[in-house]
Each structure stands twice: as C-alpha cells, then as structure tokens.
Amino acid sequence: MDSGGPIIGLLPIVVVQHRGRMPPNPLLSPEPTAVVLAGDWDANIGRAIEVVQLAGSRGIRVVLQLGDFGFAVESGWGDAFLAALSRQCVQEDVDVFFVDGNHEDFPELLRLPIDRETGLRRVAPRVYHLPRALRWVWHGATWMALGGAHSMDRRERREGVAWWPDEHLSDADVARAVGAGPVDAIIAHDAPDGVDIPGLWPAGSVPASEAAAAQRHRQHVGHVVEQTQPAVLFHGHYHVRYAAVRGHTKVVGLADDSAPLRDHCSVLDLMR
Fold it and tell me: What whole-number percentage of the chain has pLDDT above 90?
C-alpha cells in the first residue's frame, strides 16, 4: 500500500507547553515513526481487527481511524465491537485513536470524560476518541482532529436512535479549530468543499435539501482548511479512496470497511 505521500512543507505550529508532571499520553509517548490510517469501520469487528493486525505486524503502534467508528453503547453489537477491538489492541500493542463520524451515538460518547492532561476521551483499553479541534505534535508537525459530517440518509433514520444533531460541526467547533493558527495535517471524517469526490451522489439520487446540507458541512471543513492551511487532510465518509488537491492542501479519502484493505487503509511514514 502506498502512503498517500509524505507530509511536506511544514507550517508554523502552535505548541502547548505543559507545566509540572503529567501522566503518559498514549498519543505522544513515545512519538510514532509511522501510523496506519483507516476509513469507516461502522463497528465491523473483522475489518477493525484486520487493520490492528496490520499495524502490529509492521511494528506500528498507532492507528488513526477516520470516523464512523461504530460507537454505540446501547447496541449489544457495539459493545462486542469495542471489547473485541480492545482485546486485539492489547494483544498487538497498538493504540486506536478515532475521530467521530456521523454515525456515532453522540450523547453516550460525549458523556465520557475528556482527560484534562491529554485531551483524549478513553472509550476502552487502548481505544481513544480524538475530540474535535484537538491538536498534538509529532516530530515537529502539528496535527488536528476534525470529526463530524452530514448523514445523507437521515430521513431513513430515527433521530436519537440512528442519527443525532451532534453529527455536524458546530460554530464553536470551527472556532476552536481555526483559533490556534496553522496546522500541518488534519484527520477528518468529512471532506472540504472544492475537491471532486469520485462517484459522489449522481444528480437526483438524493433529496436536494440533503445534498445542500452536506455541501454546507463541507464548506465548514473548507473554511477550517483555508484558515489553518494544512499540507494534507485525510478523511473517510464517502467510501472511496482517492486523492485531490485543494490550494496548498493534499486531500486523501479512504474507502470504508467493505473495500479491499489496500483501499481502506494507508501506512504513513512520519519520518519522511
């Protein structure tokens, strides 16, 4: 599998200085030399384990999952997914960090506390949620998490059961994302506007109101990109692997859990 290209053109970064002792941060200690990026899982145990095994076989400690992770504690399957994933992570000595997509149980996810020292939300042993606008630094490059997207099929879903209003980036999310200045890389669920996504909703295939809402959300992501100027943005959501360029930013989409592994995930060398 190709990496989708190295992160290039490092931009000015914002570094948060921590005073005093803090507990080990699994995102930073130690800094990874490579990561595996993965598209939508939707609580697919087999695919999630396959990705973690891939990481473990290559000695890679970090998996970054690009949303529609499959967090659903009210579902017995969601519990089984988390338990199986956590066991595999422990076995392979791998940590999974995910951004939220548009198909997470947001009230339950957001009820879990954020660690004040690390900024992470632990959902299971070795499995962590990356809250929106969270930033961290790997080898001098600043990364940012940017979850959320619009559910095109929300009319077929029951609010509070299969979709939640929190799926969208809020104005406050966007303000936090842009407020600390430039970043080098973004991991997101949605794509910015201004890039063509292969096979995206043929005309007339979705209600015009839903297509418009999805486009507005992409414009929010695009605004974050314009204000923070990352060299690269990785995202899921559209179930297809592709690469495009938006201004100075390379945009890489990864396919979902139904796709071949080579389209679903990518190994990124952070030292190149």
Answer: 76
Q: What's CA 64's distance to the chain center, in Å?
A: 7
User: Is pLDDT of 272 > 90?
Assistant: no
Buried b (16+ CB within 10 A) or exposed e, 9-22: eebebeeeeeeeee
Identity of the amino acid at 97: F
Q: How much is the pTM?
A: 0.90
The tens digit of pLDDT for each residue in 122-132 reads: 999 999 999 99
> So where are the chain's domains?
34-269
16: left (phi over 0), alpha (psi -120 to 50) or beta: beta
- Between helix 76-92 and helix 45-57 the angle, nearest 10°, is 10
- Residue 102 CA to residue 8 CA, distance in Å, equals 30
**How far, CA to CA in Å, does 19 sit from each of 36, 179, 181?**
31, 22, 22
N-terminal to C-terminal alpha carbon distance within the chain = 16
Q: pLDDT tens digits for 38-82?
A: 999 999 999 999 999 999 999 999 999 999 999 986 667 789 999
Superfamily of domain covering 34-269: Metallo-dependent phosphatases (3.60.21.10)
